[in-house]
Structures are given as C-alpha cells and as structure tokens.
Amino acid sequence: MRKLPPFKIHEQVSIITQDGEKVRGTIDECVRLQESGHKNKYFVLERIRFDNFPGYPKTLFRIGYFMLGKKRRMRNKWVWGQYAPLFKKRDLQRLISKAQQEGII
User: Fold this and answer.
1) Global pTM?
2) Given 15, 29, 46, 65, which residue has the most CB atoms within 10 angstroms?
3) CA end-to-end span of the chain, whole Å?
4) Most distant CA pair in the chain: distance in Å?
C-alpha cells in the first residue's frame, strides 16, 4: 500500500465565499483517522485560521478524507475527497475524540 501523504500543516488554502470573493487561510492543525474496516480511507479534520473572512470567526474547521484512487489516472494514489464524507457513528466519535485529545478542538 502507498504511504499516506504528510500532514499539510501551515499550507495555504483558499475558498470562494458566497459573494464570489477568494479568501485565504492557513491549516493550523490536522488530525487523521483510518475508517474502521477500510484500510484505504482516512478521515481528516483540519483547523484553519483565516485573516480576513468577514462575518466568520478567525478559526474554522474542515472535514475531508483521503482514499486510494480507483480510476486509471489516479489508481493507487492518495486522493483528497472532493465530496462531503459519510461517517459511521463510531468513526465520527473517534475522530472528534482524537482531535480533542490532540488539542485541535
């Protein structure tokens, strides 16, 4: 199995607001958890700090996932999930607990 990509602490991220503006932030902390019963999927919880995101607090959280790709171009490469993750109750509880233990939330 391929090695999971390194944490992206201090990496810049950008999002587009509902008004169409681009807002930049920095990944401050990150925690990952392997999905129970699946060795090829990891959930990720990131704490992101924004300097200029009007109407929002400076710190927001993003949940995503990595999984091994299946399509030809990305087969056996770790791919960032582009859709909202679905959790088993136990996995969500474990991810939140791990993030609390590590002081992320």
Assistant:
1) 0.84
2) 46
3) 31
4) 43
